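Structure request: YceD family protein, Amycolatopsis silviterrae.
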Amino acid sequence: MSENPAQNPRPAQLDDRSPWVVDTRELGRRAGLSRELHRSAPVPTALGVPGVLEIREGEPVELDLMLESVVEGVLVTGTATAVAAGECSRCLDPVTEQIEVDLTELFAYPGSATEETTDEDEIPRLVDDRIDLEPTVRDAVVLALPLAPLCREDCPGLCVECGVKWADLEPGHGHEKIDPRWAALVERFDENAGEKPAHGSGEQA
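Returned structure:
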C-alpha cells in the first residue's frame, strides 16, 4: 500500500537566518559525532502571563547546548537561560527572576524508525539537516515559570484592611474590628457624642 502524502506532509522549510535554527550537516549523520553550541537567541513572542511573570518579546535566551548525532537523529542536551519580569504575588512589587531549564530533545532523521512511528507533535524532526530549537525551548521555559512569583520567600504581603505593605508598617499595626451586630449601636453612640448639650431653658426659681 502506498503512503498517503496528506498523512505525512513535508515539514516547512526552516529559515537559516533565524538564530533558533541550527545546521547539523557537519555531524554527517554519523553516530557519535557531536558539537557544542553557545548562542543567544531572542524570544519571538512573549512567554508567560502578562502582569504576573513573563519573558518579554525580544528578550535574549542564552543557549548552552551539546548536539550529538545518534542512530535515530540529533540529540540536543544542555540548558537555556533567560530573565523574566513581573510582580510579586503578595506585595505587587516589581520582580525579576532568572529562569534556567534543562533540555533533552531528540530531533528525528527523516526516514528513521522514530520518524515513522511517532507523530510530529511527539518528537520534532530535522528539515534538510536543520533543527528549530525555538518550540523546544519555549515549551520548557513556559513550564518552568512560577505561577506565583515572590520578591523574596518570606514576603509578608499586604495588609488586607488598608492595602499597605506589611514591610512598610509599624510593628503592632492593626485595625479595630467591631462585631457587625453592634455596628449600628456604635454609630449611634458616636453621633450622640458629637452633639452639643442643649442649654437649660427651664423656669427660674
